Amino acid sequence: MMFKKTVERVIEKHEEISRTVCDFCNEDITPNGACDGNEVNIEAKLGDVYADADTRVVELFDCCPGCWRKKVLPALETLSGRRCVLYHMMWGRLDSETTKTETT
Ligand SMILES: [Zn+2]
Prior knowledge:
Elements: E1 42-46, E2 57-61, H1 65-80, E3 87-88, E4 92-93
Antiparallel strand pairs: 1-2, 3-4
Bound molecules: zinc ion (ZN).
The site of zinc ion has 7 residues, from helix 1.
């Protein structure tokens, strides 16, 4: 005869990102509707990549679209002395101001 008993299993716990806060205004970065495709990536991956190991360090800021337009982009354009590259996901590059032909 078999007997059964209730056994409590330990459920694996893991951490996942629950929300992201903008590093410039401290507001939550939340999608604005189901089709919101706003995405701001400010990061550098620095170091070496080998065939079996990626040893780079990632330095990044989380930034909301509003701070990108109002704070970060103007600062970068001021630092570089140039306008940013405008690229449409379907139509490609929108400006030719930042593309120059090399003369050799
Ligand atoms: Zn922000």
